[in-house]
Amino acid sequence: MSVDPAPTAPSLSAPAPRRPADGPAPAPPAVAFHPPGGRAAWFAWAVGVSVYVLAVVHRTSLGVAGMDASARFGIGASALSTFSILQVLVYAGMQVPVGLLVDRVGPRRVLMLGVALMSAGQLAFAFSTAFAPALASRAVLGCGDAMTFISVLRVAARWFPAARNPFVAQLTGLVGTGGNLFTTVVLAQALHTAGWSTTFGAIALTGAVVFVAVLALLKETPPGAPEPVRHESLRLPVGRQIRAAWSEPGTRLGMWVHFTTAFPASAFGLLWGMPYLVEGQGMSRAGAGGLLSLLVLSGMLFGLLFGRLVSRTAASRLPITFTVLAVTALCWTATLAWPHGHPPLWLLVVLMLVMGSNGPASLIGLDYARAYNPAERMGTASGIANMGGFIGSMITLLGVGVLLDALADPGSDGYGAHAYQLAFCFQLLPLLLGTTMILRLRRKLDR
After folding, report:
1. Cys bridge to 126: 21, 161, 200, 262, which one at CB 3.0-4.6 A?
2. Contacts for 284-290: CB closer than 8 Å, 24+ residues apart
3. Nearest alpha carbon to residue 33 among 12, 51, 7, 65
4. Rounded distance between C-alpha atoms, residue 112 and residue 207, angstroms
5. What would the pLDDT profile of 286-298 be if each residue is shown by its tens digit?
6. What is the pTM of this model?
7. How far apart are CA 35 and CA 7, in angstroms?
8. How would DSSP label each residue in 304-360?
9. Which long-range contacts (CB under 8 A, 24 or more apart) does 189-195 make?
10. Is 230 helix (H, G, I), strand (E, B) or coil?
11. pLDDT at 230 over 50
12. 3-state secondary structure of 3
């Protein structure tokens, strides 16, 4: 197992991590090394985060192309949701293997592999004309996407002091949402001017530039830092390493925080936002794109705010989480309870602003995983926590899609406001489940 001979100090935002009792501990370094931060650290982070921005563009590209995909492949809501469900399923299923891979071979190689897989998947999707090959291409894309975020966090952990990690993680998420903004503003327009194959093909080819940048410019460790020790005697067996990370209550709490806070905005932005606003609310594509852009911009602002708060004090983590969950549930309840399923524009604007807090709040889950695990299994623990939101998104995408098909008017090509109103009520179930698990694990962690 890959172990840093000079692990960073425990995060100031959490208790000191515990080393697993069932594996050998690395020998202490002769000279302690402290990550320097500074311009070189920001440069290394910027190279890594460029891959994550590209991954978000790939991930959210179907969110503005849902109706185009329905027409291109001749499919309904359930089949359409399968695209995003499979992509998210692959992403979630890959988190633990990717975490193990990052711990063993390093983030640079994993990022390069991720770019290659995303580009191949998107290029195949660009020229697919049938449902089955298009579905397979989204699975390949999801596999590459899964390799990006954890790798960037690992690069940041090597370059920045531990106290800066929560802020850098939020900043990573904030910059990544720039990819979502590109999708809603540029990609949506390109689909109607350049066409399906040209638009998605251009995104795929952009990966070649990013791949070369990572290969030539990214350095995993600062100058003067000891190289990570890679020796079999220092590696736990894979199963034991996963069990050690899972047995830590902080890891499981992080997963449920990520699950509960991430999925409302994720499911909305990945697939159902544009159809809900255009078909359900009668908005134009431009107006719907403007509201989705507002969601993205709100996420950027909340990312800065939450990053500052969590970096200053660990005590802010759960209050932020519960506030985001309560306000999100309240806004969705008001929206869905509005008579005839047509809430006023001001309420939709408020909903977008509130859902902008979902993504930044979900990163608090990864902070729990980092803070309560030692450096040598940080990738594994982060992978477990990062599964949460994508599992929640997958459940919501499927639930909404199935309900829409069940509630559709016979002979109709679309779905009315009432169908969307009832189908979107499904998301209150995972919201309740996740909140219950957070409360249960919080008590366990306190004990």
Report:
1. 200
2. 285/188, 289/64, 289/184, 289/185, 289/188
3. 7
4. 10
5. 888 889 889 888 9
6. 0.71
7. 9
8. HHHHHHHHH-GGGHHHHHHHHHHHHHHHHHHHHHSGGG---HHHHHHHHHHHTTHHH
9. 191/64, 191/65, 191/68
10. strand
11. no
12. strand
pLDDT digits (tens, 9 = 90+) for 333-352: 999 999 988 999 999 999 99
Can you read off the two tokens belonging to residue 119? 């580009």
Rg (CA), the chain: 21
Tokens of 4: 């840093």
The residue whose two tokens read 């090959």 is 133
Spatial contact of 398 and 89, defined as CB atoms under 8 Å apart: no
Amino acid symbol at 327: V
State the Cα–Cα distance between residues 244 and 222, nearest whole angstrom: 29
Query: Is the backbone of residue 441 left (phi > 0), alpha (psi -120 to 50) or beta?
Result: alpha
Closest CA to 58 of 140, 155, 130, 141: 141
Give the model confidence (pLDDT) of 353-372 as tens digits.
999 999 899 989 988 888 88
User: What single letter denotes the amino acid at residue 282?
Assistant: G
Q: Is there a contact between 272 and 281 (Cβ–Cβ < 8 Å)?
A: no
Q: Which amino acid is at 63?
A: G
Six-digit token pair at 191? 């689909």
Asked if residues 154 and 276 have their Cβ atoms less than 8 Å apart, the reply is: no
Mention every residue, 6+ apart, whose C-beta is less than 8 A from residue 128: 134, 137
Tokens of 288: 């719907």
CB of 295 within 8 A of CB of 352? yes
User: In the block, which residue shows the tokens 């949460």?
Assistant: 388
Tokens of 387: 């599964």
